[in-house]
């Protein structure tokens, strides 16, 4: 009978020695080939889905305790997405894992070429607090379906969700396959001091750089899912009624604490007043006269973030919302006008329910302005004009986004999700998760019944022939 390094009631603090022991166990298990059969991978994620289903209420309760999230929001943004990811994977995993045959050049006659997808080995997943269930478990699913072992370190700021996550993982997986290690910066630092075969990090740009530096020590392949300031552009020909609803939803879901939330609004001068008044009406319909009393409007995660966001409330002019309550960590859905590109609120990712509004008149100037700033994780463009839609997609560098909507691109498991430049590197979801957690191993299989002598010395008289083939 094997012993578990982690007790079922996982202690909050874990020693470096315990971390080393789990990694050793996982490496030994990986080396037995135990993670590799496709049947085993499928069985495990099926069991995971069953266990999540059995614990749905406990997940709702944990998310509510952590930051007042409603069950509905928790289902669509934390649990439902995980089910969809598992369903997609169960349908396609066998196909994704098949070696792919590719063409072989004539110079390699008689050969056949294949790409095999093989797991890296022991992987590490570090999660943030803002979607603490989904952003820890979705990458872990990628690691499992890729045939890796995995250590998951959820955020310490959402302790209740981390506890239920640990309970679910411990019931489905042996620690030699998947383990949850809880703790804060100290624990993350101890984990990063060890050698992993792949690291998947979701969080801030600042910590992303720490992770990348640590990974560089061991040349560990790393996926970084970071944040940034995602623009939301509304052009003069947009359907303003629909835009208002979709922007308000995308900005204020999770009280703006969403990596892909519209960070700021760039609206064509001609339609600004109309859009803002539509948004005001929509906020009222969604959350009522006093959003503080709405069961559908979450709270800010911590006092530290509340204080950081409060400084933004003094910027420009509050044209919607602006109320806050420190005792309840509440900030109303807020829209700020009279903001310039140089204001503090435009210098860092907001990550809260505050939306600054800027205007534009010339699309090309606006493209130039965005391209002069760090590359955003997402971008949203509202317009009916197909030519302009295409221009925006092609002219601006950003991770991904939507035309005439916000956020929903990340809900499609067939679309790789990730950033570029300052907003991250690599991608996941669906097949992209499988690709991220597997190495492409290239194999050329040669026949032995023929051995074309062209490549062997002496080379005299062979150059002319090679030039005819490799031209
Ligand atoms: P964070 O970077 O503070 O923390 C993320 C994780 O890193 C946590 O588990 C934390 O314990 C750990 N960590 C913190 N300091 C560390 C250190 N010095 N060394 C090693 N590990 C450390 O991020 P957060 O506040 O939890 O999340 C907010 C950020 O995450 C925002 O920038 C947001 O845009 C980004 N985010 C990105 C995505 C995405 O998918 N691209 C999703 C959610 C959040």
TrEMBL record:
<dbReference type="InterPro" id="IPR016163">
    <property type="entry name" value="Ald_DH_C"/>
</dbReference>
<dbReference type="InterPro" id="IPR015590">
    <property type="entry name" value="Aldehyde_DH_dom"/>
</dbReference>
<dbReference type="InterPro" id="IPR016160">
    <property type="entry name" value="Ald_DH_CS_CYS"/>
</dbReference>
<dbReference type="InterPro" id="IPR012394">
    <property type="entry name" value="Aldehyde_DH_NAD(P)"/>
</dbReference>
<dbReference type="InterPro" id="IPR016161">
    <property type="entry name" value="Ald_DH/histidinol_DH"/>
</dbReference>
<comment type="similarity">
    <text>Belongs to the aldehyde dehydrogenase family.</text>
</comment>
<dbReference type="InterPro" id="IPR016162">
    <property type="entry name" value="Ald_DH_N"/>
</dbReference>
<feature type="active site">
    <location>
        <position position="225"/>
    </location>
</feature>
<dbReference type="InterPro" id="IPR029510">
    <property type="entry name" value="Ald_DH_CS_GLU"/>
</dbReference>
<dbReference type="Pfam" id="PF00171">
    <property type="entry name" value="Aldedh"/>
</dbReference>
<keyword id="KW-0560">Oxidoreductase</keyword>
<feature type="domain" description="Aldehyde dehydrogenase">
    <location>
        <begin position="14"/>
        <end position="443"/>
    </location>
</feature>
<protein>
    <recommendedName>
        <fullName>Aldehyde dehydrogenase</fullName>
    </recommendedName>
</protein>
């Amino acid at each position: 009978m094997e012993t578990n390094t982690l007790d079922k009631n996982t202690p909050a603090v874990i020693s470096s020695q315990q971390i080393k022991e789990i990694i050793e166990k996982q490496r030994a298990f990986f080396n037995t080939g135990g993670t590799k059969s496709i049947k085993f991978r499928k069985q495990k994620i099926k069991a995971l889905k069953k266990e999540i289903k059995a614990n749905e209420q406990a997940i709702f309760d944990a998310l509510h305790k952590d930051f007042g999230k409603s069950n509905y929001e928790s289902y669509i943004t934390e649990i439902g997405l995980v089910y969809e990811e598992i369903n997609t994977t169960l349908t396609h995993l066998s196909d994704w894992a098949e070696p792919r045959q590719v063409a072989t050049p004539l110079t390699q006659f008689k050969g056949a070429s294949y790409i095999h997808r093989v797991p890296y080995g022991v992987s590490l997943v570090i999660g943030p607090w803002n979607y603490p269930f989904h952003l820890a478990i979705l990458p872990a699913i990628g690691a499992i379906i890729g045939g890796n072992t995995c250590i998951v370190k959820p955020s310490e700021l959402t302790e209740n969700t981390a506890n239920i996550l640990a309970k679910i993982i411990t019931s489905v997986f042996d620690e030699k396959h998947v383990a949850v290690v809880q703790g804060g910066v100290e624990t993350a630092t101890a984990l990063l001091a060890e050698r992993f075969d792949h690291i998947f990090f979701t969080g801030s740009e600042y910590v992303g750089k720490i992770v990348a530096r640590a990974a560089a020590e061991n040349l560990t392949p790393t996926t970084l899912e970071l944040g940034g300031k995602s623009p939301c552009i509304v052009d003069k020909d947009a359907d303003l009624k629909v835009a208002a609803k979709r922007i308000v939803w995308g900005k204020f879901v999770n009280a703006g604490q969403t990596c892909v939330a519209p960070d700021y609004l760039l609206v064509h001068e001609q339609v600004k007043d109309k859009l803002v008044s539509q948004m005001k009406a929509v906020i009222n319909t969604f959350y009522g006269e006093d959003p503080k009393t709405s069961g559908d409007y979450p709270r800010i995660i911590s006092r530290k973030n509340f204080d950081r966001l409060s400084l933004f409330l003094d910027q420009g002019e509050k044209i919607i919302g602006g109320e806050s309550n420190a005792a309840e960590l509440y900030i109303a859905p807020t829209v700020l006008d009279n903001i310039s590109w140089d204001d503090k609120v435009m210098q860092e990712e907001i990550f809260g329910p505050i939306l600054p509004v800027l205007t534009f008149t010339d699309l090309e100037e606006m493209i130039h302005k965005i391209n002069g700033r760090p590359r955003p994780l997402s971008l949203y463009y509202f317009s009916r004009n197909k030519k302009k839609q295409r221009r925006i997609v092609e002219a601006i560098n950003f991770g991904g986004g939507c035309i005439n909507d916000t956020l929903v691109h990340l809900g499609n498991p067939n679309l790789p999700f990730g950033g570029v430049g300052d907003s991250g590197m690599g991608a996941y979801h669906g097949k992209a998760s499988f690709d991220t957690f597997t190495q492409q191993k290239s194999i050329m299989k040669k026949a032995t019944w023929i051995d074309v002598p062209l490549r062997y010395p002496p080379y005299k008289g062979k150059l002319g022939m090679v030039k005819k083939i490799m031209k």
